[in-house]
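User: tokens in, sequence out, please.
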């Protein structure tokens, strides 16, 4: 199987414009690895490629699900590997692009499914969650499985309870079981990430949030409400959307909403960085504000990627 190029990293690092350049240089198509861009109607708040960008290069796994439809990394990994194989059959270069670490992992390494659910244990954990709250349960997870806790892009009760359940069933952290029983889907991948210094990345995040609001993020959320979507849907438990819901409810002033979106997006980016920094296979490419057009960076990645292809053969 030929080599896949993966472009990963935190939000607002420039993956979209760089991936479009790379697709042009490598006769490629983009396989999105973003757990929110799969959903229809979430356009501005997920920084989804715009219509012109989607037309310029074929994209896969964008706008493939309605907001109420369940989707997960395991299903994505299976479908994405089939898509990649089809692209290779057509002599197109697959370019895996995204910041959802678990989605990227499910394609490259496969996912360890873990032991089956224990209904009694799950019930006990659920009762403790309701009694003690998510922060307490998350602190418990940090004690027994700090690696899994640090890699969570968002602290969600379902993921915390599952990780605790696996630990109490097996006596081993979920993160260790992932390493011990990692599946090999037979993919050869060259992974790259754009390496901004933290201050510049945070400035880019703040600027992106301002741009999203100018493009109509609040209006996008109002449209979702008018369409009857339940804000409790998992797809809407997303940075950028949940803060706007609070603003529309009157529990946040506009300025407070803006600052909270920026703060939560920076925290999200920090968790993404923790996840990706833990993978020694990723090649981090330092950039400065002067490199913002990405043309030179795209050429560098193309050269390194083609060198890797030659080594593979």
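Assistant: Sequence out:
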């Amino acid at each position: 199987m030929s080599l896949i190029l993966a472009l990963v990293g935190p939000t607002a690092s420039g993956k979209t414009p760089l991936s479009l350049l790379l697709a042009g240089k490598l006769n490629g198509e983009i396989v999105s690895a973003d757990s929110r861009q799969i959903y229809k109607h979430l356009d501005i708040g997920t920084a989804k490629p715009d219509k012109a960008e989607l037309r310029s290069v074929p994209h896969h796994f964008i706008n493939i699900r309605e907001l109420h439809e369940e989707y997960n990394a395991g299903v994505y990994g299976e479908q994405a590997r089939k898509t990649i194989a089809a692209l290779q059959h057509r002599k197109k270069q697959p370019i895996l692009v995204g910041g959802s670490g678990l989605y990227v992992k499910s394609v490259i390494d496969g996912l360890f499914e873990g032991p089956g659910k224990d209904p009694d244990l799950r019930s006990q954990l659920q009762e403790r969650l309701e009694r003690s709250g998510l922060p307490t349960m998350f602190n418990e997870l940090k004690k027994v499985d700090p690696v899994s806790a640090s890699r969570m892009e968002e602290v969600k009760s379902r993921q915390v309870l599952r990780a605790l359940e696996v630990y109490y069933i097996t006596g081993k952290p979920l993160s260790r079981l992932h390493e011990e029983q990692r599946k090999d889907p037979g993919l050869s991948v060259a992974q790259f990430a754009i390496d901004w210094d933290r201050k510049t990345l945070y400035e880019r995040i703040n600027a992106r949030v301002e741009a999203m609001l100018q493009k109509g993020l609040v209006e996008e959320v109002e449209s979702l409400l008018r369409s009857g979507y339940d804000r409790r849907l998992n797809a809407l438990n997303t940075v950028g959307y949940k803060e706007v819901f609070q603003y529309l409810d009157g529990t946040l002033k506009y300025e407070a909403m803006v600052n909270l979106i920026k703060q939560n997006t920076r925290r999200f980016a920090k968790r993404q960085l923790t996840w990706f920094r833990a993978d020694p296979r990723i090649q981090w490419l330092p950039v400065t504000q002067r490199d913002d057009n990405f043309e030179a960076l795209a050429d560098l990645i193309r050269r390194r990627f083609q060198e890797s292809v030659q080594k593979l053969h």
